Each structure stands twice: as C-alpha cells, then as structure tokens.
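step: validate -> pass
step: tokenize input -> pass
step: predict -> running
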Amino acid sequence: MRRLRALRGLFTCGGCWSRPPVREDGGRAAESVPAAVPTFAGRVASLSNRLQEEEGDRAEVYRELERVLQGDDGRVQSAVLARVIAAASRDMRAAQGVTEQVRTAASDVLVALARCHFDSVMCELQCRLRALGEISEDLVFITLGKLASSYALRCVPFVGMTLFALRTMLSQVGSSRTLRAVCSVLEQWSKAVNSYLGAWEQCSFPRVGQAQLCSSVSPLFGHVVGSWLGCEEEEAKQAVLGAMAAMMGLLVREEEHRERVWEQLPWLLGQYQQVQDSFRVTKALSYFLAVLGEVQIPIPQDKVEAIGTAVHRQPEFALRTRWPFCARSWGVGARPRVVSLDLLGALVRPTAERGQSLPLLVQAVRCALGDPSRKVARAALRFTKELLGCSVQSCSAWDLVAHVFATFSQASGRLAQGKLSEAEAQEAADLQALCLDILRSLDVSVRGMTKLLWPRLLQYVVPAQYTGTLVPLCRCLRELAESRGRAGGEDGEEEPNVAASRQRAKLPRPQALLARLLVVAAAPHAGGGCGVAALRLLRALSAEIHGALGMVWAVKIPFLLQCLEGQSESCLDSAEWEQLLLKFLRTSLETIESQAWTVGLSLELSQQTGSYPRPSRERAFLYKAVGVSLAACRHVPYVRGEMKKYLLRMNYLEVSEREAMISVVAGSAESHFHLALEVLQEFGASMEERPVSGAFKRLKEYHQGKRAGRHAALVLAYGRIALRAPPEQLLARVESDVVGRILRHYRASCQVLGFSFSTKDVQLKLALIRSVAEVSRAVRVAGGSRGVELCRKRELLGTLLGFVQGEPRDRLASPVRREAFVAVGHLSKLKPSLSREENRDLLDQCVQSVMPLPALEPAEEEGATAADAGHVQGLHARTMGALGELLTALLEEDLSSDWLAEMLHVLEYWLTSAKEWERERALQACAQLLGAFEERFELTGETSFGPFGSMVGLLAPFTCDSLATSCQRAGACLGHLLRIQGRTLETGAEEDEVQPLCQRLSAPDAEALRQASSRLRKIVCKHIPPAQATDFLSAALDGMLSAQSTCAQAAGEWLLTFLETCGGQLLTEVPEILSIIYVRMPTMQQDTLRHFLLEAVSLLALYHPGAVIDSLLQKQLPMDSDTEELWRVLGGKFFVDHFLRVLMEKLKNSGSDQPRTSSAKPEAEEEEAALEPLKMTRAISVVVSALQSPEAVLRLLPELLPVLLKQISATVGKEMPSSALITRGKLFLKGHASDDNPCRLSLETLEAVLRTCLDGKWLRLLRQQGAWAALEDPRAHHDGVCLLTGVLLRAGTVSLPLVLVLTRWLDAPSANLRVTAAAFCAELMKEPALQEWRCLQPIARALLEKLRDSSSTVRQMAARGLGNLVSGAPEKLRKHKGAVLEALRRGLEDAAAAEVVAESLLALAKVVTELKGKAVGSAFRDIARATKGFFDAEQASLRSAAFTLYGVLAASATSRWRSFFTAELGSTWATLVLHLRDPDPGASMACQGALRLCAPFLGLRRVRQGLAVNTRLSAAELLGDVCSQLAQESPEHQEMLYVAARRRFLGSCGELQAAALDVAGVLVEHAGLEWLTREEAMPLSATLRVLRSDGDPRVQQAAARLLRDTGLEQPPRRR
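step: predict -> pass
step: emit ->
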C-alpha cells in the first residue's frame, strides 16, 4: 500500500490526479466556471451531478456520459473528474444493490474517460488492484484489459506494477469468472507490450527494454502453464488460449524464453481437439505466426510440419472439398476465410524454403479469387504477394498476376464512380496500394518468366483503366524486353500453361502501343512518374513497334529523358514538353516512311480519344498527335477528308471540341498550308450559304451560341495555322487569306439577320485576341529582320484596346485583359511603328484596366470554393505577367532611358495609391520593366543612366511597404537599377546584396530589420551621382507624401542616408536642394515627416555651411515660418558654433564703414545689398533662440557683440528697403513685432543673444532703464549704448577683445560707428579693469581727441567719458587734470552743440568734485565765469548742467576762491532765485541745489538761514520763502530780483518768460505793491498787456495772472 500511496502522490504532483479544494466550512469549494461554459464541460458536469444525486437510471446516465466523452476531446475540470472517477469506481466494484448493467456501464465510462485523462483512471484502477490484499473485483480486471486494448502504448509504463499485482493474487483465483477476467488482462497487456516493441519510437516516455518487459510476463506465463492449462469449462479454455498465445508471442522475442514457448506450441495446436470453436484456435495461432513473421524468427522444422498437419486436419481447411471458399451455405462467414488465407500466407515461405511444391496452397487460394468479399480479396492479395516473393523456379500459380490487375481495375472503377463513404473509399485505395505493392515486388528474373508474363503483361498497357499500374508494369515489361533481347528470342521449350496463356492474351497493335505510351509520356510526372517509365519502355519496345526505329529512338529517347532530369512537375513547361514529344513523333514517322503505317497510326490515335473523358489532357494531346500524323501523311485526299471530318463532326459549343478541330487542322497545315486554308474557306462559305427560310434558325443558333462557337473556332484556326505555316507561304497570303478572314468571321459572329451587335461573348473575344497574337508572332518570325508591315495593325490595335476598356473595372472576370496584353505586345513589334505618344497612351489604357481592380480576398459568396479562389488568383497573376510582357514589348520599340522614365511615369500614379494592392501591382510592373531594360541595356548604347537617381527616389521607399510582397518587388527594382548603374560606373558587386537584404526586411526581429534597411540604403545611395542628387531628392520628397505611412517614413530615411553618404559631394547642388526642400515644406506639416526635411538641411549645413547660409539668405524678408524653422533647426545642432561663426563673418563683411555715396548700381541691387545684413541678423536671432545651451554664444560673444552693435549702428534711424516693404509682414520674436524698422530687427537679435548668455535680471534691468528704446532712437542711441555697456560691465560680459574691437571704431568713417564706440568707451571709463587691460591711457587719449570730432554726439560722449574717469581711475585724473580740465573747458565753447556743452558741464562737475577747488587751480575762475553764462540758455539740459556745476563750484570754493565766488554770486544770485521756477524740473532741482550750496556766500542772513533750514521745501515753496525773507530783510535785493525778472519778460524763450512772470507774481504776493511806483507800474502794465497776447499760451496765462494780482488789469486813472 505504500507503493500505491507513492504512486497516487506521483500522479498528484504531475497534475494527473487532483482532488477538489476544500472550503473552510468543510464543503467542497465550487470551481470557477468561465462565463461561456463549453457544451462538453457543461454536459459532463450535469451528468456528474446526476450521478451524485442518484437520479434516474444510473446505467442510462453512464451510457450517456460515455457517448459525451467519446464524442469530444475536451478535458474535464479537476473537481468533476474526481467525482466521476469516484462514482464509476464505486459502482463498478459494488457487490450488492447495483445491477450488472450499471457495473458494466461504469467500467465503460472509465475506459472512455481514459481517452483524455488516462493517468487519473489508471491510478484509480491500480489502487483497486490491492497488491497486498485480497483478490480484486472481476470488473477491475476487465476494465484493465479494455484499457490495454484501447490505449496499448500508454499502458506500457504501468506494465511492471500491474503484472506484479496480478502475480500476487493468481493463487487466490477461484471462480471461472475471475479466471477469465485475469486471462483477459494477461492477453490484452501482452499484446500491448508487443505493439509497443514494434512502435516504441512513437512514445514520448523513456524506452523500456524488451528484456525487462519479458521478465515481468515470464512468472505469469509459468503460473498459467502450471495451473490453468487443464481447465474443463469451455469459456475458461478459450480465455486461457488467448492469454497463452499473446504471452507466447511476447516471450518468443527473447532468446532465454524461446525454448519454453516452443515447448507449449504443441499444446496450442492441440486445442483444435479441445476447444469447440476452432476458429478461436486459428485466430490465436495466426497471431502467434504473425509475430514470428514480424520479428523474422525462423520456426523449427518439426514445428512447421506440426502446424501444417494440425491445420489441414481441420474441417474448414479441407482444401480438396474447397469448403471455406465455396460452401457458403454451411453458414461460414468471410472472417474464417480471411484468417485461413493469412495462415496459408504465413506457411508459404517455410514451405518454399524446404523446397516443397505449393500446388495445394495455390489451388486453394485460386478458388478464393472469385469471392465477392473485399476482405477475402485483400487476404488473397497478401497471399499472392507472399507467394510471388519466394524464389520459386517455376510455378503455374503465376496466373494469379491477372487477379492483381483485375482487383486494381475494380477498385479504380469504384473510386471513379464516386458516392463512396469515407471507409469504402479508403478500403478501395488500400486495395490499389496492395496491388501496386505486389507489382513493384514482382521479380521477372526467374527462369521462364519471360515466356509466361510477356503476353500476360503486355495486354495491360493500352487500356486506360490500368493507368495506375503503368510504373511497375512498364518496369516489368522493359526488363522482360531486355531479357528477350539478351536471349535473342530463344526461350527454350514452352510450358503448356504458357502456351495457353499466350493464346488467351490479346496483344496490342504497334500503333496502339506507340499512341498509348506517347499519351502517358505527355504527363511525365503524373502517377508517380508514369511518363518516364513509358519513355523507357518505348525504347525497349522499338523493335516490336517498328524495325526502323531502333537507332533513332536510341538517340531521341535518352535526350527526352535528359530533358526531364531535375525538372519537377511544377517546374516543367508542359506545352514545351508536348512540343518535344510531337516533334519526336514527327521524326519517328518520317523515319518509318510508310504511308499505310502512318494512316494506321492516325486511325489509332483517333480511336484512343474515346478512351479518355472530354475534356482531358490525354484527349487534347491525342488530337495534336493526329495533326502531326496528318502532316506526315502524303496522301492528300485522306488528309482533306480527315480535316473535313473533324470540321463537321465537332460540337462547337464545347471549347475542348473546338480545340480538337484546331489542333488537327493546324497540325496538318505544317505540310498542307494551302490545303488547310482551302478547307477552312470552304467550311466558312458553307456557313454563310443559308437560304432565306433559315433566318429563324440562324437567330436560334445565335442565341444558343452555336454560330459564335463556329466562328470563334475558325478565327482561332486561322491564327494557329499561321503559326504552323511555312514562312514564305504565310507572308504571301497573310493579309487577305488570314487576317482578312479572321476579321470577317469575327464581324459575322456579331451579326444577326444583317444587323451588327456589340458582342459580349468572352470566348469570341478571346478567340480573336489569341488569333491576332498568333498571327503577329508568325508574321514577325517569318519576316525576320526585314520587318514585315501589317497594313491592318492600327485596326487590330483599336479592336483589342476596345476589348480591354470594355472589361468590368470591379472584377477580373475573364482572361480577356491578359490575352489582349499579349496580343498587343506581339502586334506592336510589327510595322508600321507607333509614335512615342501613341505608345504612351496605349500603355496608359492597359495599366488603367488592371491596377484599379479590387484586392484578392478569400471567396465568401455562396458556392465559392478554394478552387474558385485559386482560379481568380491565378488569373490575376497571369494578367500581371502579361502586362509585364507588354511593357517589355513597348520598351523595345524605343530602347532608351528616356522612354523608360516615361513608362515609369505612367506607373507612378499607382505607386502612390493609398491601396496597398494597387501599389503592389505597380511595383510588380516596375520590376518587370526594369528587368527587361537591364537585359537590353547594352543595346541602348548609352554610357550613363540618367534616370537612376529619380527612379531610386521613387521606388526605394517601398522596400518598407506594409505588404511583404511589395517590399520584395521594390527590392527587385533596386537590384535591377543597381546592376544597370553598375555597368555605367564599373562599380563593385554590391548589387547582389540588395535582394537578400530586401528579403530580410520582413524579419520579425527589429534589430535585424534595422540593420538590413540601413545597409540597403547605404549600398544604393553611394551609387547615385551628385548630378542626379536633385532628381533623387525630388522623387524621395514626393514619396514622403505617400498615403502609406511606412513608405513616407522610409522615404525620409532614404533622404537622410543619401545626404549622410554623399552630402560632401553636393556643394554645387546645395541651392537647388534647399529650394526643393523649401517648396515641399508647406505640404508637410506632420512632425514625423517634417523632421526629415529639417534633418536634411542640417546634414547639408554640416558639410557645406556657407552654401546653406547663402541659399537661406536668398529668402525675402520678412521671413516666413518655414524659413525661420530651417534657421531654428540649425541652431539645435552640434555644429552651431561653426555655423554662427560663418553667419557672423558674413554679417561682418556684408557692409562697409564708408558712408554711402552715389553708385552706378541699379536700385534693385542696392536694395538687395541693403537687405543682406538684415537677413543675416534675423538668421542669427532665430538660430540663437533655438540654442539648447549658451556655450556657443558665450564662446562667440566677444566677436558677436561688435558685429551686432555695428549692425544696430548702421540701421539706427533707417527705414526698411522698399523691396521688403512690398511683402511686408510681421516678424515675431518673443512677442515683439519688427514692422518696418531694421534697427529694431537688429536689437531683437542682440536681445536674443543676451537672453541666451545673461541672467534674466540683467535683461529686466535693461528694459526698466529703457535701453532698447534708447538704442532704437537716433537721438538717444548713445545713451542706450551707455546703458547697455553699463549692464554688460556689471554682468561681467565685457572682455578685452570686445574693447579692442570697439575702440577701433572711434576712427571709423561712419559717424554712427564712432558714436557707438564713443558711447561704449564713455561708459567703459567707469570700469576699473581698464587699467588691468592697459587700455585706460589709449582710450582716454582717444576721447580727448574725439572732443574735436565732427560729430557732436561723439564729442558729447568723449566729454562724458572724461567725466567718468572720476569713477574708473581717479588717480589718473589727478595726474592729468590739466589736460582734462582744459579739454572740458574747451567743450564749454562748443556753441554749435548744446549737448556737448551740457555734457562738458556735467563732466566738469564730476572732475571738480573729485579735485576740489584747490586742485582745480586757476581754471576755477574760468569755469565759474563760463558756467554762469548758461543759466539762461534755452536748452534745459544746459541750464541743469550749469546749475549742477555751479553748485559743485560753490561747494569746492576754498579760501583762495571764496572772495572771488562771493563777488560772482552777487551778480548771479538773482538768476538762481529766478530759476527756482524753471519750467524744466531737472533744471529747477539743480538750481535749488546750487542755491543751497551758494547760501554761505550770500550776505543775507535770514535768506541764508532759511535755505539752510527749509531743506524739504519744493522749489516753488523755497521761492516764496526767499521772496518773503527778502521783503523783510532787504528791499534792495528785492528790487534787484524784480529787475532781473523784468529783464526776462521779453526774452526769446517762452518757458523762461513764463517763469519770470511767475517769479514777479510771487514778489507781488509776498511784498505787496507799495514798492511799485506809478512810474514803474505804467510800463509794467503795458508790458503785461502785450505779453497777454503772446503766441505762447504759457506766457499769456502767466501775464494774465500777474495783471490780475497787481491790479494793473485796468489802466490807472490820472490824478
């Protein structure tokens, strides 16, 4: 039991046995059932539940369950499986309460369940054997026997444990029932082991040794021999007999057990007397003998005699009375006779080996030949095979060979009739196979065989029903003929039965043999190679057929056999092979030179046509052979009669009959051309000679198709005759008697009662098309190089194209298109030749009729079959092949690359189709066309292949088409193109790599696919000459617009690969390439496609940056989005440093520092030259904005900044050239529009550059300071440069190279450049690093010099720079103070430029502040006197600067200059007070500061104190305070202030006039009118009235206010 438990555990681990899972509540867990339970699983589960619930008849449930299990191979769920096995096992073993029917049904269910769950069932049965317990139930043994019988090989792994369990319980067997059950197990398991030993290779488990298996059976065999052989009960005897025979058959295999087996053989034979049913003994003996024959173990001599004696003593073997085969009335069935025949067959070889005769055996079997049972017939054939396989010297039993042929013929007839069940058909096929096996094993080398078999076998050659036996039959006959030849016809004395056999045999005539064997040879590979065997037999029978054929056939037949070597059935051209055979026949007939023999052959050929069905291949070949025989016949009346006979007797409604007539007449025309034409014309004339009364009959014939069939046959016959006619005779009659008759019959077929109709008869159309094709071929061959002209060529072409255009476009219903293409191809080669335009139109019409056809799909219509689908596919394939032939024919009309390109252009439309099947067809046509051109390229005489680039660009992307066949065809196209190109360039042999690479494009491995595609592109692209680059790129870019996404992607990859491979050679083609790309950009907005365009431009820029830049700069301003994108993509590449440098150099050299002068250049050229720098500037802006990192700009910044500043300087204050304004648009860069201002464009570029390399805070600072607006304004440009320079200095961007470049501009001819440089240097003077760079002195010296520059702005910036020296190098200032002060003082004298004076004043303020009064020296006096002269200047900037400097002078006045400054202040203090109301806020503030600084020098104590205390007062408040203090402290000073104000009432500056009036008003307000005398009031009133009418509104308002405040608005009355 431990072993059984281990076995159960093993099955559990292996998944063969499982119990349903247990829930926590103790019940069985419900298994998960899929949503859609299969019917099989559901039914099994339902029946299992019924067994569990004990519902209904359990036997019926088991039988239903057995039927379900036997009807499906599905597997049962594990829980259901366990329940079913448990229930069936329990019921099978139940001793009480269960009927015998239920137990048997349960056993059968277990056997059925083992079909898919063998291990589980076997495990259950093994557990029930109870190896260590008491005897098991009988049905357990019976079930084990059934398992071995049904699943023999699967039981082998369990043999050891099963037989071991049986051995332990054999001693416990008591009842006869149990004994029979155990014997059943022993019999079936022994037979299972025997089956395994003969087929162990089919098993998946490890091989079990024969010795091991026999050792398991041997103890059981010994027990049975020792204990059970003496059983008395009949059923027990039969059971023991079966077990013994099976175990003997197994043990006899091993040498060590063989002696025991022979010892028990007499017991086995003795059972004939012991067992009542002797058939069971025979069956057991037959099994044992069959095993001996299988393992080829010889039977001892004495045992053979014992077996024979025992068998012949039995009643059913009373051979002399022929009981088993003749006396059916005795009630004996076929089964005993079959077993008896098999037993006789087993005795044949031992009997023959003892040299004994076999007449008794042969006689017995001959009696069974007429038995209608097929099983008996098969047993008789097996006996015959055994008999014929023995080396018997001579035996009359060879007549059994006839039975082999008869049986084969009967089986073939039954199969041909059909209506057989599958089992019956298989039975008939098995009989055929057994007959063929016998014939193949037939040994004809036995003495006397030639005499015996020659007539017997020869009569089976000609009848068609024995066709299947021809291979072995021809082999036997050939060997017999060769044996007769070697024997020289001397066979010695004939035996009586041989002579009788010869008399009975019906020998065929020689013509019949020749006709039959030629028909068989026409299909050399059919029937397992019948044709080859027939040819070999023909050679062996040459003397029997005709004595003159021996030498000819000795040469011709080996040649024919050689033609078949290496040719499979699919590779052999059947039409060509038939022509070879017909030529062989014609040669044979010419060798015979016997008209009677030839006529006899013709009659035999005609007669044999009735042996084959119509239509059939054999029948068609026979008609062709008839034609050949008539051509070889010189008896003209006979030939005429035969042709007329075939014309009259054929049914023209059947295509095969029409072809038969055509074959005969056309074959005859080879030697009787004029006769054939005459006969056809007579027959055609007889068709038209109908009386009027036959009109209705004609109409009836038209509708039935008879009339059209006859005309179609005649049309075809004329074409076929033309092919076979002698050339000279054909050319003389082709126009009138061939082509004319063809058209006449065609038109006649389209007429009824004189009315013409457009025919829809496909067969008629095909007849005309094929006839035209054949006539064209014949005329072309007959004319040779002369080029015969066919006058009706255009008429025929029009008819053919009409047929093509009339075909439906939604399906390929007939071969009309294909045949028409072939005919047009042949017809086009005849003269007169068509023009290129006509050929192009012809090709276009033909292509349009094929390409739009729907895709081939599996037939889904009712009644459609796989054969129908195959027919349609074949029709499509042949039509495309015909189109390829037409392309080749048209190509030969004008063999040149230009014509090739035009033909491909016709196909290009279909290459870009969105339908993949249309692309595939177009690619197939392209491959055919290019292949034809490759073969004929040498004939063109061309030394170069100009369209190579464009064709590669057109076809290469389709190597990645979605259809695998399209990829292969595109690869074939590339292979042809490369080989053509290789012949012109004399390149290597890489072209041969293309096709294997294209085959790898359909590989599932992505990496292999990528490598193959890359390698293919590189091979092809390097063969494209630079001169064809633009053609290739144009075609590739057009391919990117393909509707097929993979092709579009592939086109882009080809484009990039070409530029990667050959980009370095395309310098001169760069402009055109860029133009091609630019034109395509608007049509390619998808990112996946646009990426390729941008990458292409990048690759060109990598190789030729200058050329790319020049080409892109040709685009007009404002830039469109596509041009900007091209520039932008270049900014994202690794070579952007070099690219920017090239742009920068171009921009640097684009203009001249010289001012513009008049030029002789046209205005357009000048404007274009003016636009060039703007384009470059814009390009730099776009490129820089696309940069991924600032490193490139940082490296180039010292050079880039001067270039951009120079461009800004050159464009400040300028307008956009008119040529750019014509296409005015908006240029957008980060939200700013450039409009028409070229300076703003340059500023945006500079901003983009700085945005790349500066922190954002510096850019915000520039914007807050208004630097960009100042740089753009011509009046504030210098201030903007200063602001920009200041930020750059703070950001640490200014470097020595930049300084050196800009300082050189100080001497530039351009004033703008000098201004920019001066402003830069002015701000730069604040930078202490100048001393480190050793640039301070040169720049300071330059600024001193620039104070004399012609540009006032330059002078202004020079003065500012000298003032900034205070911040940058104060020690240098003190060292050179004299020169600086002198230069700035001279600047105060620059009366023409107020801005220079103002800047000089401010610079002096800085310098004086730094030097103090003492260090200023004597210049203090001059500066102070000069400064006060600008207090009343019209320019506010002058006034503000003067007040600022004056305050600085007051603060710097040391004791040396105190008295001087006090004296100066006495004359200037009133002006200072007046300018507290200065209209300019800056000047007012500066004046306020200066007045406070001058306060210490005033003698007015209260005013001085007020100025010192009231520091928070505004200028107006301070003025009021001063006037108030003056009124209280010093009326004299008040008077002085009034006088000073009045002097300014009538000044030239309206702002200052208004300010003076306001000051006077303040005086009046704080001092009253007491101090104003009448003498002073009168002029004041008059002045104010005048000013009230001033042109300046401010003066008017101020005068009116003062008149009102003083009360002088009305003139004073006189006192």
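step: describe -> The longest helix spans residues 866-893.
step: cleanup -> pass
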